[in-house]
């Protein structure tokens, strides 16, 4: 599968997860954290997922899967322990022009969910040829470096960009971005000197 990387605004997304076990629980938690509206469809729903549903905007539907349950979805996740059912969910979702992820067989869907690290507005997503454990290992290695220092740096850059552009000083922002986000960017962030550099452009 040739992948096209894309970040979605979760607050605009309705996701349907078919399955009620541990995988569905992880997927639901990640979607809720992004602000998405989530519908979980399964005849049996794990206690952890039921608890998550009580504390969030998840809609729990205790039913067997049917295609009508995909109505209104933008993203579908097939997370059952029945490979044949997961395959049918994928077929149904694709026929409706929806994004669909098959948790147990990514190649059967048309999108994958990567291993993700978040530090403020810095988000790193890693895929590794359908091997989730490899993606997670790479993600964890990157996470050791991309800590709060990078989150702070990006907050400062975002604030500077907004103030200069809103102040009709777009040319100054262009110059600032060139100077601040150069080959020394990472070194200055990691040394704790980046905030000082940003302050000179305010």
Write up what this structure looks like.
The chain has 202 residues and is α/β, with parallel strands linked by helices. It folds into three domains: 10-113, Rossmann fold (3-Layer(aba) Sandwich), CATH 3.40.50; 114-145; 148-199. 44% of the residues lie in helices and 15% in strands. It has helices spanning 22-33, 47-54, 83-95, 132-143, 148-166, 170-180, 185-191, 194-199, and strands at 14-18, 37-41, 59-61, 75-78, 99-102, 115-119, 122-126. The protein has a five-stranded parallel β-sheet with strand order 3-2-1-4-5, with helices on both faces. Strand 6 and strand 7 form a beta hairpin. Helix 5 packs antiparallel against helix 6 (170-180). The longest helix is centred in the C-terminal third of the chain and has 19 residues, at 148-166. The protein is elongated. The mean pLDDT is 93.
What are the SSEs and their pairings?
Blueprint: E1 14-18, H1 22-33, E2 37-41, H2 47-54, E3 59-61, E4 75-78, H3 83-95, E5 99-102, E6 115-119, E7 122-126, H4 132-143, H5 148-166, H6 170-180, H7 185-191, H8 194-199
Parallel strand pairs: 1-2, 1-4, 2-3, 4-5
Antiparallel strand pairs: 6-7
Helix pairs in contact: 5-6
Topology as H/E string?
Answer: EHEHEEHEEEHHHHH
Helix content: 40-55%
* Total domain modules: 3
Q: Would you tell me which CATH topology of the largest domain applies?
A: Rossmann fold
What spatial form do the alpha-carbon principal axes imply?
A: elongated
Largest beta-sheet characterization: 5 strands, parallel
